[in-house]
């Protein structure tokens, strides 16, 4: 992160912890780790362990969905805080393609932070809800692509 950026990685990790503890228990149960967060991209890791595995010893669909959710959504809160705005944020739809079993820890990557910032600012200017599709990639520890997600986010800046 650059020094001009008011959001530290530690503060965003704390916000994610609080979100998982008090608002979205599934996030708290899986204990995802925010690895990197910049204006442009985010990396989130979920460990493949008992809490996140299915009966085939690969990462459960729900755990993969949580990782994609966080990596696509945390930028909305990041930019809301950066621009001192309050956002109402939700997902409208999700399209996922599973390419191979996720049998190791999975890192979720979203490289569309700038687009999400534009969405937040457009919603603030127009006072309307803005919907856009965001791409998320899920990679195993060997760097192999295990899934791709297209998450349709819906953002509205509220007063």
Brief rundown of the structure:
The chain has helices at 9-23, 25-30, 61-82, 113-126, and strands spanning 33-37, 42-46, 86-98, 106-110, 130-139, 145-158. The protein is an alpha+beta fold and 159 residues long.
Shape: globular
State the assembly state of the protein chains: single chain
Number of domains: 1
Helix content: 25-40%
What low-confidence regions span 5 or more consecutive residues with pLDDT below 50?
none
User: Radius of gyration in whole Å, from Cα?
Assistant: 15 Å
CATH topology: Thiol Ester Dehydrase, Chain A
SSE blueprint:
Elements: H1 9-23, H2 25-30, E1 33-37, E2 42-46, H3 61-82, E3 86-98, E4 106-110, H4 113-126, E5 130-139, E6 145-158
Antiparallel strand pairs: 1-2, 2-4, 3-6, 4-5, 5-6
Helix pairs in contact: 3-4
